[in-house]
Write a structure and sequence with these properties.
With 221 residues, the protein is an alpha+beta fold. It is 41% helix and 17% strand. The chain has helices at 28-34, 42-53, 69-83, 110-120, 125-129, 131-144, 159-169, 189-196, 201-208; strands at 4-11, 16-23, 59-66, 175-179, 183-187, 218-220.
Length: 221
Amino acid sequence: MSKFIVYELINPLTNGVFYVGYSSRGEKRIKEHLGFGKRCNTLTANVIAQIRSQELGVQYKIVLETENETEALNLERELIAKYGRIQNGSGTLTNRTSGGQGCNGMIPSEQMKAKLSKYRKGKTYDELHGVENAIKFKERQSKNQTGDQNSMFGRRHSETARASMSANSRDNTEYEWTHADHGSLRCSRHALIEQFGNLSVTELGRVARGKLIKYKGWMKG
């Protein structure tokens, strides 16, 4: 059975803990940190480099060894919460997340945000996450918008909102559309839906206004 560990990296310059980690590979993960900061986030690598510049070595302490992964992940989260993180201003740790695996609590950099935005632009949920995940997402959305789960349950849209939705539903403006499989044609959003079905008038509107590059293969011509 696998042995899981929770460990702390200690800065000998301050005698303070600067990183809390979890590993399913025993001390191999710690050795990766000690290997000149390889496979570390930038903050952690910078601290390790600072320590090495003073001809010192990073110290570490194994806080827990267990065969129970949940126990290890829970302790990692607790310790990160206890010491706090530099990135969100709550403490001294260089951890980028709140622990427990995954990206919970991670604050993306502006550069990362730009890369993600560029990657996602013009792509549908199906294209980004796969058809199976898209179906599950739509099922959850449908469940969350049914009955008293719907945010408008027992409420009414304002006169302004109803007028806007009514105008949107009557919009018969014709646009030039192109599709790799269906070619080019000129028609309104509603006409496109009538001809090909399974399309959202709202998402087509975003394409028509230039807010979305492509929706289910359809682009503004």
